[in-house]
Each structure stands twice: as structure tokens, then as C-alpha cells.
Amino acid sequence: MVIVGAGFGGLFAARFLRHAPVEVTLVDRTNHHLFQPLLYQVATGILSAGQIAPPTRDVLKSQKNTTVELAEVTGIDVAARQVAVVRPDGRPLTLPYDSLIVGAGAGQSYFGHDEFAEFAPGMKTLDDALAQRERIFGAFEMAELEEDADRRQAWLTFVVVGGGPTGVEISGQIAELSRRALTDNFRRFDPAAEVKVLLFEGGKEILATFGDRLSEKGTKALQKTGVEVHTGSIVAGVDADGVDVKGPDGTVTRYPAKTKIWAAGVSASPLAKILADGSGAECDRAGRIKVKPDCSLAGHPEVFAVGDMMNLNDLPGVAEVAMQTGIHAARTIRRRLNGEEPQPFKYRDLGSMAAVSRRRAIVSFHGVRVSGFLGWLMWLFVHLAFMTGFKNRFKTLISWSLSFLGRGRTERALTRHVG
Amino acid sequence: MVIVGAGFGGLFAARFLRHAPVEVTLVDRTNHHLFQPLLYQVATGILSAGQIAPPTRDVLKSQKNTTVELAEVTGIDVAARQVAVVRPDGRPLTLPYDSLIVGAGAGQSYFGHDEFAEFAPGMKTLDDALAQRERIFGAFEMAELEEDADRRQAWLTFVVVGGGPTGVEISGQIAELSRRALTDNFRRFDPAAEVKVLLFEGGKEILATFGDRLSEKGTKALQKTGVEVHTGSIVAGVDADGVDVKGPDGTVTRYPAKTKIWAAGVSASPLAKILADGSGAECDRAGRIKVKPDCSLAGHPEVFAVGDMMNLNDLPGVAEVAMQTGIHAARTIRRRLNGEEPQPFKYRDLGSMAAVSRRRAIVSFHGVRVSGFLGWLMWLFVHLAFMTGFKNRFKTLISWSLSFLGRGRTERALTRHVG
After folding, report:
1. Contact A260/A243 with Cβ under 8 angstroms?
2. Which CATH class name applies to B2-29+71-108+266-337?
3. SS3 state at B368
4. Closest by CA position to B311, among listed B157, B115, B106, B49
């Protein structure tokens, strides 16, 4: 059988099948399993790339029935039951399958404004996060060079678009950075006094999925950290020097800002449409393929779509859904091998959480809503628990101790040219 | 005053002047102080970039008399006493000085064969080390794709040119990697059995500066780790698919190898020649500027050249010389401010060391020669001691514990395209 994607969906499916009587080929275009929820910590210099991206081969090394194939999927022929891939050396290859699990994730969506991408990149891959790191720390370097006060302020203004967990976490960390980690680093400006972090959210509140009470607590914590929160604000234009934002009253305001980060929307992997076209299934507005209750495709009980790229009861695009649907698809395959009937997927909601600032997080879990330091400890525990590999857990705990108890960001070396 | 370069020479000069009644401008084209002796550990996935490259601004943040300028030096006019730089935004700037310390280091030298550089890059900057990391781990990925046995063997053959400490350390670590860290990671080959690491040294022994006895011990330890040591072997040709090596008997042998690393020679920064042309001083064959006994230039007691780019009594190009000459130049400037005469530089030889393999190093110190585990403990202690910043020391110790007591390499995420 073939699994496409080494994210939470694909990796957990592969691990579930470690003792099953199947030959598994796991295909991914990168060599690593990426812990996406912590990408923002790579972007803000807390964690190194390797800490959130263990090599897939290494994670699965003792699983003898599994081969990891580094290749990019270019097509899936559900009628002929084969996956077309291109390897890094350019050679095409066809992987036949009896069962297929596709967990190819989602990319950034600009809601029809793809021209924003150049100036407000998103953060979905390790490369994205490393590029954001260069942009964020590079902006401080550029500010230090700038004699003109207005132009310097534009370098010291950071715009984050989107008030979901990712937008909240990255804006909180940029504020923490300027208020604490970069103290005394510059001679021509004071980061704590001059940096502005602006968070724009189109809806009426940030962290809307957490409910009003936590949303309000999150907003207050974020403001205390130094983030200006603008709700009911649609980003209508983005260029090299700033953003144009349509406020709740309909007027458009210009905010000069050199660094913009897009965290406002996702769009499913193009493989969702390829699967839909091949099987006659439908895609929703976010490009996610609609699946049957057991995560398989209509008319193709041997093909499963899992995680961010599929739509089942409008479940959210979070790691927890990807893991559970990946495991469910794998379990269904094993049941079929045993001659058992498939069962519908049931989501066990383990709650959601967002780390708003240093030592403060909000957590929503079965109606229990926790915020502040206790929430942060829960956030810490859960993220360590779902991290892959003892060594990465241990090193991450050390990095967090140094960054959150102390002040430092150790991953600040710029490698590309600034500017 | 101006200091050019944030390496061991420049940084230690700046720190020495922290209480001196001078305004210091430290210019570097990168944002970090690089711990060059550990670059090979970044290349082989043991350490992250940030662990050996703390931001220069952060190191000097509490030193109020010092400004760090991110810029590339394009010229030095010793007659007019000014340094010409270009900032990352492209704007030129002129920095006048009363005193100047230049510690711009050295790059790789190919002894007139610059065409080798494309296929056998060196390892002098953080970018170099990260690119080597992609090449080394990428080669294993390419081997896993290759069905042809000969072509696979070429991907699994690593050539290191140059038997000095850097060449020995990187070849030892690649061998460790294949023998221990990558066990069970691949399905189409066994790294421990099939990887070849070839070290070519033109002279009659590797680690020649350590003396015959340690050189022999180092050779044996390296061979035990799995490195083939070829002495008296001149690399006469390098291309995409391998190297041509002229052996001690004069015959040329072809070694197919996809990954080649150059660690064979250094050439001083072009600033050495610019200083020489301006002051009438001479450069030696390696491009190093000859300086007076106090490290200043003849006729220009206000200009000092320190570290790898200068030649004083043919001192070796090691971190220890750079630190001590940097401090000496800074001390001479302070003495002059106090109306005291300059003194000649005296090198305190703290010995030299090379980590041959996991838990084995050779150390030469005032005629005392140590090898094996005790040598490795000394290596460990000295490297931690000279590392900048408590946090980097602490994290590095953790990484070493995990990599040298355990088996892991946590920094293996490939970000660019493999191949």
C-alpha cells in the first residue's frame, strides 16, 4: 500500500500499520516529518529547524515493512490504482497500490489575491519558517541602518494577517522578541519602545473558535504583550511598503510596514482536486475533498483522504484531526484485511489551545476553558507529548527553558543576504 | 576606532576595549560571531546553526561604547584613515578611524585550481556548512534512489581533501554518521557496510603539525572509525563524478565519488592585499600580510592586522592566534592612549587539538601529547570554554551528550532540493 505525506496524518497511519501484514511505501517531497504547530517558534528564533523536523526515515527506521520514498507526487490514477511521482533526480516513477492513504495537507490561501504572497508570505513549510526568520531578524538590522524616522518605523512595524492560533502565536512572539529578547541589541532605536506589532482579523474577534470568554482573555493577554489587535479589519491591499486595511466602519487606512506575515487562510493540497476529479467526489470552497464517514472516497473504498486536505463534517484543520483520521484510515485497512466492515470515523476532541505569549496560553477542552499560566503548562505538556522522538522533546524543553524563563533566542544567525 | 571582522580576532579586540575611553565600530558582513572550529559539526548534523553563531550585537549588547555595523568592507584607505563599506541595502558608507584593527580571516584556497570549487566546496562560513549538510545527507537520499550499483557506490563515497584538523574531523564524523547515526534508515543499502570515506593528504602524514607519534595515533583512530587514509596523494582533478589522485608512486587513480569536501588550504581575505597595497607591506604566498612585531603595519602604527589574514613569525591560522593577536592589538591601542610604548606580540601556545572520532581526540600541549578519551575530554572542555555565551555552551553540551553518548544527529532536516 502507499501513503502520501509524512505529516501527522500519513506518519501516524504508517506507525499504526507497523505490525500489519502489509508493505507500506510512504512518499513525501521533504525528508522530514514537520511539527507544523511550532513553525512560528522556528521563525522567531526559539527552536532550530531540526528540533521540529525529524527525518521520516529515522522515525520509521525500525519499522521493517515500511519504505520511505523521497519524491513529489504528480498524479494519482484511482482507476488504475497507481501514484505517479517524480524523484529528486528528475526520474518519474509509478507506485502501484492496493490501498492508498493521502494526507497531503494544505497550503496558504490568499482568497483570490495571490499577488499578496510576494509581500506577505505564509508559513506552512520549514523553508517558509526559515525565510520568515530571516525577514523578521533582517527587519531589525535594516531599521538599525535607517536614518529616516518614518522609514525606520516601517521596518519596525510587523503586520500579521489572521487572528487564528497561528496569527496570535507569531504576533505574540514578535512582541516578546522586541520587548525582551532584543533589549540593548541596537544603538539607533529601542526595540521595546518602537516596535509595533499589528494583528488584523476580518471577523469580530480573534481566536473565535475558542468562544467569547477565551477570545477576550486571549486579546487582553496579547495586548499586554504589546500587540495591537484590530478586529473587523480586512486587508485589502499589500505591497512592499505596507498594507491597506478596511476597518469596521468601511474606511480604508494605510499602515506602513515592511514585514507582513500571512496567517489568514488555507487551501487544500492540489492532490485533493486530482482525487476528486478521478473519483467523482466534490471539493469544498477551501479545496478540501469531501469523504465518506470512514474517510474513504465514494466508489473507492481502497482510497482514503485524511487531515487538512479533506472535509468530513467540517472538522477543523488541526494536527489532532490529521492524526486521528490517519489512524482511522489505517485501522480500516487492517479491519478489511481481517474481513471486518469499515466503521465511521469518530472525532475525539482533545480540545484546542494557543500560546498567546510567554507563560500564557488559552485552552478549550470539553467545555473547560483555561487561560494564563496553567493553560501554558497544559500547552507545554501537550506539545511535548505529541512531538516525535525523545531527543527532540528533550532539546525543545531545554530551548523553552532558556527562552521562556530567560530571555534568549539562540537561533538568530542570518545566513542569506539581509534586505 | 574601527574593527573589521567579528571573528575571534575582532570580537576579542572589541571585548578587551569595553572599558577603554574609545568609541568602537565593529563591522562584519554577517550578523554573527562564528565559532569556525565547530563548523564541521553543523555540516554533519550535530549542532544547529545558532549554536555556533551567536549574534554579534547580542554578545556586545551591554558594551555601551561599541556599535555593530552590518556591512561589507569594500576598501581601506590607510592614507586618509577611512574604511569604505556597503550596507545590506546597497548604500555605501565611509567610516573614518583613528585606530583600525582588521581581522577579516581567510577563505578556501584551491592552489590555482579554482575550477575545483564547484565540485569540492570548502567550509569557511555558516552558509558553507549548511550547504555541506544538504550535500552530505542528500547523498544518502540519492543513493537510496539509485538502482545501479556503481552509481550508488559513487553516492556513498565521500572524498575529503586535506589531512589537517578540519579534514580529519569532518571525515571522522561522516564515518561515524554512516557507522552509527544512520543505522537502519535505508532500505536499499546498509550505510555501515557500504559507505566509503576517503581522506587524501598530499604530505607524508596527516595532522603533521602534531608530530609523528600523535599523527600515527590519529591515523589509527581515524581508520578504526572507518576512514581510508591516503597520504602522499595529490588531488589532480575534480569533477561532478569523482576525483583523480596522483599517488606516492606517481600513478593517477580515478575514484568515483559524488560528494567532495575541500579542506586543503587557505588564502587570506582580499583585505590583506588592499592593506598591503596601501601601506607598502608585503603579502606571503597565502596572501597574508606581513606585520610588525606588535601586529601593526610598517609606517602605520595605528593600523593592525590580526588572525588568519596576517603573517607574524609564520604563526598558524588557528582561533588561538586570532584571539591573542586581536587582544594584543587592542591592548596596544590602550597603551598608546596612556602614553605607553607598544610591546611586541608574544604567542602563548595553548596547544592544538583535533577530535578524530567520537570520544577520541589528540592533543599537543607544550610537549605533552595526549590521545584517546582523555584527549577528547580536554577537547570538550576547551571548546566549551571558548564558546561565546552560557546558553550556547549549555545547548552544545546537551547536543554532544545526545550525539556522542547516544547515536543521534538531530539537525538533519533538508530544506533545499536534494540532488
Report:
1. yes
2. alpha beta
3. strand
4. B106
Measure in Å the smallest separation between the Cα of B242 and chain A Cα atoms. 18
Q: Is B228 assigned a catalytic role?
A: no
Please indicate whether, in this complex, the C-beta atoms of B415 and A88 are within 8 angstroms of each other.
Answer: no
Q: Name the CATH topology of B114-264.
A: FAD/NAD(P)-binding domain (3.50.50)
Q: Which CATH class is domain A114-264+358-405?
A: alpha beta
Q: What is the pLDDT averaged over residues B5-27?
A: 97
In angstroms, the separation between the Cα of residue B283 and the nearest Cα of chain A is 30
**pLDDT below 50 — which residues of chain A?**
417-419
Longest dimension (CA), chain B: 74
Residues of CATH 3.50.50.100 domain(s) within chain B? 114-264
* Whole-angstrom distance, CA of residue B405 vs CA of residue B180: 11
Are A61 and B183 inside 8 Å of each other by CB? yes
Q: What is the pLDDT of residue A409?
A: 80
Rg of chain B taking only CA atoms, in angstroms: 22
> Is the pLDDT at B417 greater than 50, yes or no?
no
Please report the pLDDT score of residue B416 as a whole number. Answer: 59
Of B137, B135, B140, nearest to B156 by C-alpha is B140
Q: Which residues contact A184 (CB under 8 A, 6 or more apart)?
A: B61, B62
* DSSP helix/strand/coil, B105: coil
H-type helices in B93-240, by residue range?
126-145, 149-155, 165-176, 191-194, 212-225
